[in-house]
Amino acid sequence: MSDSKNNPAPEAPNSYLLAFKDDDFLTRRETRGIRLQLEMLKPDMQQTAMGVERTVVVFGSARFRSHDDATAQLAQARTGGDAEEIAKAEQGVRNAHHYEQARAFGRMVAEGCKDLPAKDQLIVCTGGGPGIMEAANRGASEGGGRSVGLSIELPFEEKPNPYVSPDLSFRFHYFAIRKMHFVMRAQALVAFPGGFGTFDELFEVLTLIQTTKAQRVPVYLVGVDYWSRVWNPQVLVEQGTISKTDLDLFVTTDDLSAVWAGIRSFNGLG
Length: 270
Hints:
Blueprint: H1 23-26, H2 32-49, E1 55-59, H3 67-80, H4 83-113, E2 123-126, H5 132-142, E3 147-152, E4 169-172, H6 175-184, E5 186-191, H7 196-210, E6 219-222, H8 224-230, H9 233-239, E7 251-253, H10 256-266
Parallel strand pairs: 1-2, 1-5, 2-3, 3-4, 5-6, 6-7
Helix pairs in contact: 2-6, 3-4, 4-5
């Protein structure tokens, strides 16, 4: 005979509870479509209410630190004396250049748009996390502008960086809906060096533009040395997996001023 104290019967569902107040019901597998729709609607409606219709999306690694933070980490590693930690921290100092570039670019966008009419303004939009995302949001804040953060629930990214505008900070469960929001308002995309996540976002955007599922917008890869080493799109042309004209979908550069000039020109901002 089973012991009812050790094997309690499951609680009966609260059938009388209003469906939209029933968390157990809303998180069932069968109601996933509703959750997807809600994740689409909430950020869209809020951004519309806040007058955000045109964004410059910035992608890049979540692992890069500011120069000050990276230098402090290197000093700490040298004090500890662990060779592996020192080498890792030295790489962190080298990578800090990308953080500072993204920070400068975010500031460039904010300062370049602050005197424009509201309908013409471009707002920095990132994934809301640390690293390059933090840097671009930080630069926008330093430049006196607002910025959007589209955060994702991940074990190692628990909260948005502190530079996202509080009323434009959103959290997603579904990667697919988050990536749709990146594209919906984008008037340009700028990818700094990054890992799997950056490649995922970048290649999805390029695919959507290539297949005309999304409007053609400027796409810039910042960091010639990095991008030239991690992938060679010319090989795809040689193998016949993309067309030669697909190479025109993006520009690889180190010149932030040229990036911003190109975005301004594309958007008719002079």
